[in-house]
Amino acid sequence: MKNNQFAIQPVSTHQKIAELTQLGFLDDQTDQLTATELWYHFLRHTMLENPSEAGWHAFLTQTLATSDLTLAECRAQQRPVSRHMFQLVALQLLAFEVDVDYDPAHPDVAWRTIQLPALEHALDQPAAIIDAWYLLLCTHTKNGQSFIDALTSRGFLVPLYQLPATQKPLFFNGKALAVFDPTQLINEVVYVETDLDTDSDGQRDLIKVEITRPAETNDGLQIPAVYTASPYNQGTNDAWGEKMTHSVATKLTHKDPQQQPDIPAFPTPTSHRSTQGETTTAEETVHHQATYTLNNYLAVRGFAIIYSAGIGTKDSDGFQTCGSPEQTLATIAVIEWLNGQRRAFTNRTDQIEISAWWCSGNVAMTGRSYLGTLATAAATTGVTGLKTIISEAAISSWYDYYRENGLVMAPGGFPGEDADVLAAETFSRTKNAGDYHHVQAAFNDYLQQMARAMDRATGNYNDFWRQRNYRPNIKNIQADIMMVHGLNDWNVKLNQVKSLWDGLADLPVARKLVLHQGQHIYINAFRSIDFTDIVNLWLSNKLWQVDNHANDVLPDLIAQDNVVPETWTSTDQWEQPGHARQWQLTTDGLRERAVATTDSVTFNDQLPVDQFQTFSRQPTVWQTALVTTNNAFSCQFKTPQFKDDLLLQGTPELTVSLTVSVDHGMLSAQLVDYGTARRFNVSPTMLNRQGLELGYHWQKDDLREFTLADRPSDYHVISFGHINLQNRHSSAQIDALAAGQRVALTLKLQPIFHHLAAGHRLGLVLFSTDFGMTVRGNEAITYRIELGESHLVIPTVR
C-alpha cells in the first residue's frame, strides 16, 4: 500500500509537549527519563486491553525490535533505541504485517515505500523521541486511520470523558479528539419555521430538524454544528419515481421559437405562528435516521450533528421542488435557527418555542449529491453563520444535470429521470397517510406544472432552470469551500464542480478540491488518503477557530492518479492557461500538425431494429461497440501512440463543421484513453467491512480502496459532450437548421484530470444517439463531418 497524508500540521516542540502531556504521555516524572526509557514509557501507554505487568511482558516478547531480537531481549541487553528499532516497532504498532508489508531487516525501505512521514533526527535524545512519537501518533495505520484514532478506538481517550465541559474539546495536531462519550449523546427533534408556504395551506412551512449533541452542552459548552440537508433522510418513494420516469424512446424534432412555460409560484405567508411559551428542553427524540459516517466520526469530537430533509418530506410541511429557490430558503432556515435568527418549536402543534442555545452559531454543511447540492445552494446565499461547506459530487446548475446544450439529458445510469421524477421520489410526506391525503391533489397539480415548466419538449434553458442555477450567485459566497468529486462520475458530471471551482477563483474565500477516481461515491473511508483527517483539520479551523493553518497546510487541489494505485498528488490549479495541445481531425486520425484538406467523413444514426433494441436494453453493450468496432453509426479518430506520459488537465474543446441530412440533429462526442492495461475497478474494493472504528464502542465504517482489475481492458472513456444542432450558440437560443445546411459549432466536453500513459493513444469518437444519456429516436439521419475545419483542443500541464 501507499500512504498519502496531507493534514499533518507542523507544530512547535512546545505544542508537542503540551499535547502529549494533555493525553497523559508526559508528566513531571518523564523529564528524568533517557531517550530509550521515554520510548518504553510511550509504548507502555499503548497497552490498553491488558495494562498489567503480564500484558506488558506479552507485548515486549511478541514485538520485534530487530530482525532477530524482540523488545524484551533488547531491553534485557539495555540496547538504546535506534531509528531502525523505532521504525520496526512502529510498523507493528501501525498494523503492518511482517514479510507482507515489510522486511524486518530493512524497516526503512518499507517506511519509504509506504510513504510514512519521515523521521527527521537521530533518536539519541528525549526531545527527538518526543518528536518521533508525536509524528507517529499522526501517522496512518494500515487500516486507514491515524495512530491516535486507532488508539482512540481501543479506549485510550475514555478517561478524558470525565473532564468538565469547560476543558473540552481537546485537539491533537490541530484536529478534534473523540473525548465525548457516545453513550451520552443527546438526540432530539425541533421544528423550524420557514418564511414559505409551498403547500398553500395558509401557514408557514415547518421543517423537521434532527439533532445529535454531546451531553456537555447541558453543562454550558457551546459547540458548532455540522448540518446535512438530505431530502432522502425521511425515506423515498422509489415505486412512484419509477412509474413517473419518462420514456427516452422518442425522436428528436425540429424546434421553432416558442413562448416559455410558466413557472410554478407559491403564496407568500403574511404572519408567523404565535408563541405559546418557551423552553430549553426538546420533547421529541430521534428514533432512526440515515446517517453519513463522516458525521458519525465528528459527533464524538465536539460537533453537533444536524439532519433535515426539508420541505415536502415526512413530518415537515410544504412541497418538494427539486432545487428551487424555495428549497434553498428552507435549507438556510435551519442555519438561521442555529445562529439565533429564526424560531423553532418543540412540536408541530403546541407552539412552544425552543432556541439552539447550545450552539455557538458556527455551522458547516456536509453531504454528497443532492445533499452537497443544497450545501452549495445555501453557500451562494451568503447566509450568516455558514462558515464552510464540504460539498461532494454536488450540482451547481440543475440544467447541466438534466439537460445539456438544448438536449434532454439523463444523469448517467438514470435514463428518463427528470426534475419532476426526483420531486416525487423525495416527497416523503406520503409516509404519513393522513398528512398525504390532505395534500395529494395539490402536490399532483404542482408536479404537472413542474413537468410543463421544465420543458422536455425542447430541452432549452429557460426560467425554470435559471431558478435552479446557483452559478450566478457564486459571487455571494462568504463561506470557505471544500469540494470533492469523482473523475468518473457520469451522474453529477465534472462541469458541475469545475464551474464552482473556477467561480471561486477571485473571491476572498479559501477553496479546496479533492478529485478521486470513483464514480458517485463517498471517499471518507479510503485507505490511501487521510480524507477524514483533512476534514477534521478543516472543520476544527473553520468552526472551532483552532489556529491550525488549515488553509496553508492543505493543498488547494488533490487528485488521485488513474495509472498508479494509491497515488495522490497536489497542485494549486486544475487548468493552466496557455498550456494546451491541438489535434486536427483527419482521415488518418488525430494529428497535431494541421493539414489543408477538403476530406469529410460520415455516419448514420439509424440501426437495425434488433441492434437498436439490444443497445436500448444494455447501454454497456452499445458503449463497447461504439469505441471498439468499425461501425456505421460513429466516426473514430485516434492519435499515434504517445512516447511519453501526458497529463491532460482542464476542459477539452471540440470545434466541428458538419452538415446533417434533416432539419434537426444532435452531435455527441467521447474522449477515450486507448491502450491495453489493468485499470482500476469501477467500484472501490472492500478491504475490511465495518473495520474502521469511528470512536470507542461507537459507529463503524467499511475500509475501501481502488484496486487494479484482475484483467486488462483496452480502453477507458475519460470525457464526453452532447449538443443540439439548433442550440449552437446558446442552450437558451434556438438556431435555424435546414437539411444539408453546413454549420460550425464549438462543444465543451466534460473537464478532465487524466494521466495518459506512454504507449497509449488518445481517441475521439463522434456519433449522435447516446444510449446512456440522450433520447433514442433511431432515425435515418446522416451526419457529414468536414475534417479540414474540425479540431480538438485539450489543456495540458508542463
From TrEMBL:
Occurrences of domain Xaa-Pro dipeptidyl-peptidase C-terminal (ranges): 536-793
Segments for region (Disordered): 254-276
Annotated catalysed reactions: Hydrolyzes Xaa-Pro-|- bonds to release unblocked, N-terminal dipeptides from substrates including Ala-Pro-|-p-nitroanilide and (sequentially) Tyr-Pro-|-Phe-Pro-|-Gly-Pro-|-Ile
Its EC number(s): 3.4.14.11
Keywords tagged on the record: Aminopeptidase, Hydrolase, Protease, Serine protease
Matching InterPro entries: AB_hydrolase_fold, Galactose-bd-like_sf, Pept_S15_Xpro, PepX_N_dom, PepX_N_dom_sf, Xaa-Pro-like_dom, Xaa-Pro_dipept_C
Top enzyme class: hydrolase
A GO term for molecular function: aminopeptidase activity
Keyword Iron-sulfur: no
Subunit structure: Homodimer.
Name of the protein described by the UniProt record: Xaa-Pro dipeptidyl-peptidase
Organism annotation: Paucilactobacillus vaccinostercus DSM 20634
